[in-house]
Write a structure and sequence with these properties.
The complex is a heterotrimer of chains A (about 90), B (about 160) and C (about 110). By secondary structure, chain A is an all-alpha fold. Chain A is about 85% helix and about 0% strand. Chain A has a single domain, classed as Helix Hairpins (Orthogonal Bundle), CATH 1.10.287. Chain C has about 110 residues and is mainly alpha-helical. Chain C has one domain. Chain C contains 4 helices and no strands. Chain C has helices at about 5-30, 35, 40-65, 70-95. In chain C, helix 1 (about 5-30) runs antiparallel to helix 3 and helix 3 (about 40-65) runs antiparallel to helix 4 (about 70-95). The longest helix of chain C has 27 residues, at about 5-30. Classes of the chains: A mainly alpha (about 90), B mainly alpha (about 160), C mainly alpha (about 110). Chains A and C meet through helix 1, helix 2 and helix 3 of A and helix 1, helix 3 and helix 4 of C.
Chain lengths: ~90, ~160, ~110
């Protein structure tokens, strides 16, 4: 069962990432692109967690955690830059 | 006690996340305990006034309600997203806030963003009004009343008098 | 591997994948920024939630002990997703992005 569910799960998330890429390239505004990147890193975490199950490795958890931390900080930094024109006031 | 542990809940959370990150063992339990005491002491000046937790059971109930709402909300939002975008009735709504504490307001706005078709967009300077964007709103008064009854009142009971 | 556990893990993976996809479909097809904001903040968190639940069940079964560290990722995302949505909404209002004409109410000046 898992042998079917895993590839399907990968497919669904890769499709999601492609849709995010479409929004990232299409824009039309800067906040749209930032939102697309924000969604992309969250989907990337899902992909990594799935890869961890597929390869039966526990190391991927740390990669997922790091992406979560860095992704959040960068989204906030970009959003703040768009609002204030500055990141650290 | 209160001088050594200014924020007992924060210390408990830190200790638990240290153990979750590193696995359960005596060594990490001890190291985590040291960090759980030292980190809140060291960062104390940065923390705003954190309200006292008045009712732990109500907090647990609130967390369960929110999780349930997140799951149902996702089904509702999924249907809206996959349906025709023409049928959506988007709206900006201003909601008067009864909560006064910054931390409680943060919890409320986060809850609103995670649940049915609403994203909190802004809080006014004086902390009296909350701006919410709704994906598909039928009746403004009903939406505000629902948020107040389901999330704001419990939060008020948990943190304030 | 136990049939029941395998079924639960597979179901969690599929639920997670479907919700991640639905959130991204919302991002791709909804007409204005404020509407697009709704997809990622909800559907995607549940999407990651589903895969993390799957991973939790899978490794807990394999090691025959409760493995809770994946929960940290989910917890972190549940705390941060509303914050980034809030910041992006503020940025959008600051830039006075167009909204669909039939939107009731109006955003605040930033």
């Amino acid at each position: 069962m898992l042998a079917i569910a895993l590839p399907v799960g990968f497919g669904l998330i890769v499709l999601a990432l492609l849709l995010n890429l479409y929004r990232l390239l299409r824009g039309p505004t800067l906040p749209d692109r930032a939102l697309a990147l924000d969604t992309m890193y969250i989907n990337a975490i899902a992909l990594i967690v799935l890869y961890g199950i597929a390869t039966d490795g526990k190391l991927y958890f740390e990669a997922g955690m790091l992406i979560a931390l860095i992704g959040f900080v960068s989204t906030v930094a970009v959003a703040k830059y768009m609002t204030r024109g500055d990141i650290i006031e | 006690m209160s001088r050594l542990l200014p924020f007992p809940m924060l210390s408990l959370l830190l200790w638990l996340s240290w153990l979750l990150l590193n696995g359960f063992s005596w060594g990490h339990g001890l190291l985590g305990l040291v960090l759980a005491v030292v980190l809140p002491l060291g960062t104390r000046p940065f923390w705003p006034n954190v309200p006292r937790l008045r009712d732990f059971l109500k907090l647990v109930r609130f967390v369960l309600v929110v999780h349930w709402d997140i799951i149902t909300a996702n089904l509702v939002v999924a249907r809206l997203i996959l349906g025709s975008p023409r049928k959506l009735r988007p709206a900006f709504v201003e909601m008067p806030l009864e909560l006064t504490d910054d931390f409680a307001i943060t919890l409320l706005t986060s809850t609103i963003s995670l649940t049915p078709g609403t994203v909190s967009a802004d809080v006014s300077e004086d902390r009296r009004t909350l701006l919410i964007h709704a994906l598909d709103m039928d009746d403004e008064a009903a939406l505000v009343a629902q948020i107040k009854q389901r999330y704001e009142r419990p939060l008020k009971e948990i943190f304030e008098c | 591997m136990n049939q029941v556990v395998e079924f639960l893990v597979s179901a969690a993976i599929l639920v997670g994948g479907v919700f991640a996809l639905v959130g991204s479909i919302g991002l791709a097809r909804l007409p204005d920024f404020y509407l697009r904001l709704h997809g990622p903040t909800k559907a995607t968190t549940l999407g990651v939630g589903g895969t993390i639940l799957a991973s939790l069940l899978f490794f807990s079964w394999r090691e025959q002990a409760l493995q809770l560290q994946e929960v940290l990722i989910a917890l972190f995302l549940f705390i941060t997703a509303p914050v980034s949505a809030h910041m992006l909404a503020k940025a959008a209002m600051h830039r006075e992005l167009k909204r669909r004409e039939d939107t009731r109410g109006r955003p605040w000046k930033q």
